[in-house]
Amino acid sequence: MPTRYQVQEGDNISVEPLGQPLTFHFSQRTAKNRFLKAAMAEGLATWSPTELEERGIPTPELVELYRRWGEDAQGWGVILTGNVAIDFEHMSGAGMTVITPESPFSGRRFEAFQAMAAAGKANGSLMVAQVVHPGRQAPETLTKEPFSASAVPLAPKMGHTFAMPHAASLAEIQRVITGYGHAAEYLERAGFDGIELHGAHGYLIAQFLARRTNQRTDAYGGSLENRMRLLLEIAQEVRRRTSPAFIVGAKINSVEFQDGGITPDEARDMCALLRAEDVALDFVELSGGTYEKIGQSWADDVKESTRRREAFFFEFAQTVVPAFGVEPADRTTKVYLTGGLRTAPAMVRALDVVDGVGLGKPAAAEPGLAAALLDGSLSGAIRPVDQIAHDDGLSLIAACVQFRQITQGYEPFDLSDPTATATFLSDIGALFQRRAKDTDQKESGVCNFSGPQTKHISAA
């Protein structure tokens, strides 16, 4: 049996609040519970190093992955997809899905997105696609001429190097806005319930929000309102091109509020702008981390107060949530907290501050975790061995290997099992050796798990 994060003795809190529906004010759509399957890059879409139109089409494997997350009627209230790019030549990784402004509302790509949406929402979950432009945070192997808010370089990180970005022109900014709007309309027509604008983790919107990466002197730089202009104009364009029932959310980042990014006062002002009627965000997901500062692993220097709460960004949430409304009933923009929550009691306590909780890597290890927490059969997520738990980059790769297992009809390997973990580490070691020789970038995604596997038995 897997080793799990343990509930503290006497911490017998009812999980009933996690099972309560959540209605989004602007779209008037209702999530069946307070769980959000957080976005994680799957690396399972089609890829070609030379044929741009062959990039980013959802595969049957990707459809199967979302079928598994959506197979339980008591499962995830909201299922967020991994990154959907809006430009073939500006991608954060090979194997991510792509919808460009030129993508038609028909054909192989469109039908594949339709299948993906139908699979995830088959049993009542809301399917929301996370859409992103990487800006300067696109590997140099994929993007030779990146742009950002300003010409601020990004140092090599997580095995990638990044080309020097140039400051985005007004035409490039307009194409980004158009790209998000087209993607939203495309996704709604394909059957998705909503879109999340990725304004976190160091991607383009975050690059405009943070002072250290935005040194512009035009309408998109300087004051907080100017630095927010790109995000606000994207949200308005998305609303213009979709129906009132389409969910629109955004992911924002605690790290961007530190180290020369955004001050606490600006954070509160920013949240007040995001709940405005002309922006009409149904939800905001609070998270953290960039390529420069990941910030989402249980490293030794994590504060003890953070360990007790289990949420990496709890203090950040306490700072900004009141700007959306002190009482839940006052919040026209609902708030999710993602990052570090591992036991049911901690998730319930988080609802004292936010409206819902997001789970990422635990959902890769156990696609049915939300339902199991709600029915009481489980009280905590699997606790990985320390080597994985303390290394966020390694744990993300492990999640991608687990995705592959899921698409092949297996249960994910047990991250708490030292033997299974050793097999995983051997597998990715061989993968890295192959990648070093793959100068033509023909290979995308990760490797298969070579150890013993257990077939998945689908829910009734």
Keywords:
460 residues; alpha/beta; TIM Barrel; eight-stranded parallel beta barrel; 14 strands; 11% strand; globular
Report on this structure:
It is a single chain. This protein is α/β, with parallel strands linked by helices and 460 residues long. The protein folds into 2 domains: 16-381, TIM Barrel (Alpha-Beta Barrel); 384-452, no CATH class. The chain is 32% helix and 11% strand. The chain is built from 15 helices and 14 strands. The strands form 3 sheets. An 8-stranded parallel beta barrel has the order 3-4-7-10-11-12-13-14. It has a two-stranded antiparallel sheet with strand order 1-2. It has a two-stranded parallel sheet with strand order 8-9. Strand 11, helix 7 and strand 12 form a beta-alpha-beta unit. Helix 1 packs parallel to helix 2, helix 1 crosses helix 14 and helix 3 (170-189) runs parallel beside helix 6. Keywords: Flavoprotein, FMN, Oxidoreductase. Residues 20-283 form the NADH:flavin oxidoreductase/NADH oxidase N-terminal domain. One of its GO terms (molecular function) is oxidoreductase activity. Belongs to the NADH:flavin oxidoreductase/NADH oxidase family.
